């Protein structure tokens, strides 16, 4: 059974961009377009509306997403279960995480998994960890890595790997900014933090914790920039644009860690839990279960 066109469809449905979808699919744009047209011809409906500027899903395309995900998942389950008697798992396993997580955590996990199951092909994709849950829910990735939210969406399971502090970091060369941020007297601290330029995550767990911290000290932050990706926050702070909030694990693995200073206001940020996500129903797939058990 060939599920290639279903996977190509899901890549395009997620990105709504032929260029990005072709990169994910390791195909040329023209080859991707041909495969999508073949799928539409076989179904007798249009899945996408496309012009020179945009790609959007049709009603049929939106309905087809669930079928494509379930079909690929069911095919993986039956193929893996048929292979169990041979004691050799094979097939593809897609994993998504941040660049930092790929060498901080996943290197050891994947090395161990590959040693036990050498015939399994790992598809590793990297990006902003804040997208981990959405990629899990969409079914576009089998396993993702990110921070545990306050409440897990229904049908998603989580396995903890580590915890990490959230740190305030300032440009090392800006001693005045470091001095302002390290103020311990409550009244002066609130006054200082009203004028400190902040570089924060656009969204996600770290941003929520930052918002809660500012609410606790009754300060509206002066936001200089909102950034996707913790690595980019370290870069902007090192360039002197303001103070940022990043996980300790990101800072310790950054090549720019010597260009910033950790500041310690009296109110500490909460730690957050880092781990793996997958859909509970995907654990029926022996291949994914083997990775989860490891």
Order of helices and strands: HHHEEHEHHEHEEEHHEHEHEHEEH
What is the CATH topology of the largest domain?
D-Maltodextrin-Binding Protein, domain 2
Describe the largest sheet.
5 strands, mixed
- CATH C-level category of the largest domain: Alpha Beta
Order the strands across the largest sheet as they lie in space.
Answer: 4-3-5-12-6
Oligomeric state of shown chains: single chain
Structural class category: alpha/beta
Number of domains: 3
- Count the E strands: 12
Alpha-carbon Rg, integer? 22 Å
Please give the count of helices: 13
The CATH architecture category of the largest domain equals 3-Layer(aba) Sandwich
CATH superfamily of the largest domain: Periplasmic binding protein-like II
- The general outline is elongated
Average pLDDT, to the nearest integer?
A: 88
Termini separation: 29 Å
